[in-house]
Design brief:
With about 1300 residues, the chain is α+β, with helices and mostly antiparallel strands. About 35% of the residues lie in helices and about 30% in strands. A hairpin with a 3-residue loop joins strand 22 and strand 23.
Amino acid sequence: MYQKTSHSCPYTCVTAHPLYPLIAGFSSHSPSKLDVLDLANPPSHLKSLSRLGDNLEVRCVKWHPWRKALLTTWTDGLVQIYWMDNGVLKEGVMHRADVNVAQWSESGERIITCDIDGGVVVWKVDVRGRMSVVCQMRMKEAVKGVWLLGGGGGGRKEKVTQFVMLTHPGTLHLGTDTNHLTTLHVSNNPIATVVAVPNNILLFANSSLQTLSNVPNTKEWAITSELKLTQTASWVTQLEEGAAWVVGNRCWVWIQGEVDVLDTAGNVTAICPWSVNGGMGVLEATGQVGFWVWKGQWEMVERIDLGISSVKEMMFSSTTLVFLIEEQLTLLTHTPLITHQHGQLIASSSSNGVRILTGPDGKFTEINFGLKKGVKGFALSGKRVAAWDGEEVEVAYFGRDTEGLESARTVHDASKEPLSHVAAWNESRDQQELSLKYMSPSMHVAVDDQSVYCGVANGIAVWGKRDMNIEWTAGEGECLDIVVRDGVLCVLTSKGYLKLYSLPLTATSNSPKTNVQLPFDFVAHQDSGSFQLRFAPSSTVECFAFIPTENARYTEQKLWVYDLPNERMLEKNFEKDEKLVSLFWDWNDSRVLLVQTSNAVHTIFVINASLHHHSSAPLHEHHVLVGVYLPSLYFLDPTTDKLRCEPHSTLHPQLLSFTIALHTSIDQPPLPNVANETIMELARMALKIGRLEVVKACLAKVGDVEGIRLLSEGWSGMVVLGMQDDLVADLDPLRLLKYQVATAAFPEALQTAQQHSRIHVKTTFYQYAQYLAETGDVAGAMAAYEKAGAKRFETPRLLLRSPPDLEKYIQTTPSPLLKKWAADLSSSYAVPNFQMYEAAGDVLSIVRLHCGNGNIEGAIEVVQRINGKEDDRMRKAGELIIARWYETAGKYTAKIAEAVRHYTEAGYISHAVRLAKGHNLDEELMRLALIAPKEAMLDVARYYEGLSPTHLPLAITLYLKCGHLPRALDLALTHRPDILPDLADNLPATVDAGSLDRCIEVLVKTAKYEKAGAMMVASGRVEDALELFGRVKVLLTEQVAENMLLNVGEDKKLEVLKGIGELAARQGSWVLASKYYTKAGDRPRALQCLLHSGDLDKILFFASHSGSKNPEIFVQTANYLQTLDWRHNPTVMKSIVTFYTKAKAYTSLCDFYASCAQLEIDEYQNYAKALSAYTQALKSLLKAPSSEGGIASRVRTLQEKIGLITRFEEAKSKEYEESVRDMVDLCGVPGLDSTIRLGDVYAHLITISYTLGQIATAQHFLEQMRKRVDGSIEYYLDDRIVKELGIGSGQHDFDGIAEEIVEGQE
């Protein structure tokens, strides 16, 4: 029943919760405010979410998939989640721009948000609603939309969340919450929107629909189909397993790769998904809305005239269809039918009250209630009824006793006639006597004739003669459902606890007599939102049945029955499309449980802690099962409010025990004393479950001897029985298929197999083909064999009697196996058919035939034509055939060598060795033995050992190759010690110590020291090897040294390293010694070895990498480098400075700089560079620690030298007269020659005087230079100047010049 209401609203955009009657909306006029509405009758305002600030607007609103939580994003990048259950608002701040896209994952544990700058954030939402960032991504362009790639049912936790993002103009990206991002697809045609379903992504462009599918067993995605659209798709909607859209006023649907068009009465104007039932709602231009569901094909289950032709938005919110039209909200609310049974009283809900049905003709007693929000639920007892709306609970009395309805009775004797039941009704009705009202928000209420019980938080409120409250701990959960049955109050909590209270309750006896937690993961299902439960106790309150409710998101249709005495949870699965609707226990018998599905009523027996399915009966259209009081079932037609009573044929009290025993016991139950027609009904029931012995007993009961005989013959007899009693329609599909095959009804059998048992389709076609072959229909049999998949081997057998037809069939059928079969058949008649073998690609058979005919050349030619790696096995098989032919022919001819060669080509080395050894082919034997398996190799070694001594090296080699070391060494030591040196190189590591010692002893005696040392190393006697190499002066190589390290333990490794370094040093292998001293950690000795080697590159490398651990290495290296020609090698000079600096040897560095300065003076007279060097020396000396002695005096000395050189350099740069005065003054400085050579000063005076034409002055200074400077004057002066000054020495007044210079100084 649907109710249409319209309400004015200011919203321009609304979004609805898929499972709860909740919507959220905001207006473009006030975009900073978001309202949450409850769609109860009438709709009410629950919450407003708003923020203060300029330009703050709501951008995206998304409901949680199954919890009451609302996700909101804002233009400033804020992400909010409002949890309605506790009123908590959680916020996440990661974006810095407008968040225009947001989406929940299917489990509700992940949120993907995207902003206009390309920022993408994946959030985690825990069970407490807290938000945390899982990963972040940055796209080059803004994201237009996000779609989750699902694959699991609701509530299943996702291991990795995958989502698809669309960026402008048509690029699709695949991302995961593990921060993995790939480009999935790039389209030249701009993509308008996307729909993501498991393993498929639908891309809606302007004029096409492309399907992007995940290729099985790979990680690749590819376009698998494309559909051209005449117009741009509108109202694109995602369904559970596909998508729907509107094009050309028609609704198109894509389900599992198939595209269909809904057969609507008018043009489609809007569509929306219906998540509760997995269908969708379709609005037509005629103003009617249709509700469509998928049942293998799309079917419209209901159509309602609304008078609305076009809407702005259309969506489902739980069972309410919401339409947004301008500023008007139109609601189409589905009011579910509520029924209740108490004994034989059946009640149903109406718009404002409860109807207690009083007869199958539709008569009822109407009880009206004054509830503000209408009747949301009610409970019934024998005398009164309680109704509630979530705010109030009202209780009304309708009679003093239950005599208003009399029980159904049997009007015919069951022993004489078939069972038939009618209900006799008393139409007298008592008036309503009293009405009580309680204020309570509870939606879980039970009632009996004494009290009213209302479920509250962590307890029950009891109203009646004694008002009281029953409470339990919060850890046991809240009251989820409450039922009164057989004087017991049954309570189910949200944490899975089942509580049973004995009634009536008193102040002293209000504790539960049973308090047990159900043994299935009930809490997990509730927390994940997978499903909700419908709950019913049995008549004895010992068994409790559960099924998912209509609003469940749980994909499986399952029945649970908890057996309280045995403490076991029983389960039964139904087909996925068989949605569970309701369940009822028989009011009196706790063994019988009836479950209504969407299309049938199932009878289930609960016996001995197990479930037994008894029968299934189709459900009449619009009928609902509302009660069970055996032998009657009560059905209600909601469209007419008429009650219908139907008898259950096999659950009459006289037959119930027999029926239950038939299903639960392996023994044959005794037949009841009923009419023959009823007996045959029992036979039909026994036939359905395969109880043939019971069928025979039934036939014997009715005296059908012929039926018993036929039944004893097996299925054929049962078929006859079925035909006689019209049982075929009641057979299950498998038995019906066997019956149809047995009666040669193959068209019907094929139809049955295709509809109900596709695994038997090919078997049925095969049986059909056999039947046609027996009847002579060869063409039909061939067609049936082909459909059975047996054409390849059955059709030739069928045509054997007609050789022309067989040959024609073989020629026209492109089957290599068939052609091979024909060629084999021809060869069996001694008629070789090479062409047929060649057509079949059977090369080996051709080779075999050539060999059989003695045409060995032809066989070899065929094998040689085989090429390619894929045909290598075939080629080797051909070589094997040829080799066997040669071996057979070799007994009479000299073809054994050819046989050996072909066996080798075929890879059969052992056969080739056998022939070569047996026919004295010694040249080939050793070559074959080296590539043969170990067994053959050992056999050849023994063969060589038995020959002459010249063959012993070959035997020894083979013994070593096949692992027989002791024998090989024994032969070598005993007979051929001369080959021991060659043998030592090939010894494996597994040789025993005794054999090695013997070999070493012989090698030492024969002066084969290198081989002996190698064997010592191989045996682990490294110390002995070092001693041997040092004693006999065998050069130690790097390879031998490495082998030593491989054969020594960690405890002796350091000692061996030092020994190797010492031996290498004694032998002059300085680089090798340095390497192993370094490995041993003795870097100073390693450096000394390198210094002896004189390898400059290695010395510099070693110092650079080892000096940091031992600064003395830097000093020693720098000292060594000073012994080299560092004056002409800048690299060495730079290294000296670097090493002294790194070692912080500042005094040594100072000395080096002083040496550099003196070098510049002595070699090049370059006092400028010498000044620079002395300056660096002073800087270095100032860094030296004060603890070193003599630092102060050295500093003074350097400073004096720097001062003198500075005066000298400044004097050289002055004018002539001033320069001469300064130079003469400088010559008078005591000890000048220790810093500036006096000859350099006079040379400068002489040179500048000569250059300026002051010849007399130059001659005067030359004379002074001869007196004061030791050594040759030509060392300082140019020979030309000396000669010219010497010639004119008597032409100038030297004394006057000198006096003038002195006066100038004064």
